[in-house]
Fold this sequence. Notes:
Elements: E1 8-13, H1 18-30, E2 33-39, H2 49-56, E3 60-64, H3 66-69, H4 75-85, E4 89-91, H5 98-104, E5 117-122, H6 126-134, E6 140-145, H7 152-161, E7 169-173, H8 186-199, H9 208-221, E8 229-231
Helix pairs in contact: 1-2, 5-6, 6-7
Amino acid sequence: MKRQGQQRLLTFGGAFSNHIAAVATLGKKNNFETIGIIRGDELTEMSNKVLEYAFNCGMKLIFVSREQYREKNNLDFQNSLLEKYGPFYLLHEGGANELAVKGCKEILSFETEKYLQIVCPVGTGATLAGIISSANSEQKIVGVAVLQGKGYLEKEVEKFLASENSHADWTIEHGFTLGGYGKSSSELRQFIYEMESQYDLPLDEIYSGKTLFAIFQMKRQGLLGQGNILFVHTGGYSFTH
Length: 241
């Protein structure tokens, strides 16, 4: 964005998007303008803690219908945003693009080679694709879907992997969405509370909490094999409380 001389960044996200919160934070810290196109025209800046936080960081929030939001990758829709808000650097939903995959390759290193199973949350698929690309042949990669998208998520990951030379063993587990993106349960909230109380490990209900909860459940159900498990905590904060 800096190389292109842009001073405004426009991106997309849902009501509980950690990505939206992160972009708003960067905009405030680095003094550039941020615009968030948010899925759900029934929402406002005060609908939840994530949106309120982003708004207070100075992000301009634009609420669109779910039908409009599905056009986010449509060039005509993007051009209409360009006409309305002026020049901007476009960052895809969740920050998911080829640069994201490249960056996420760096998550694994020689220090993580001892882990036979690597588990991470899956929203857009870019993080999972990066991890798959850099995994060794002995490692099994498991993505935990945080939204309902069986089949769709696999295709998204495969798109990112199309230009990568990877033959890693990977799968996406769809049994722990709790009903969809941003959905939670009293059991999950209790689990997150216990993890923070006992281990001082902060988790959010959208990504990291769901994933670690899934790891415990899959282990009990015999869905994970033997050997060391690496849980990739992708950040996030419990804005939903």
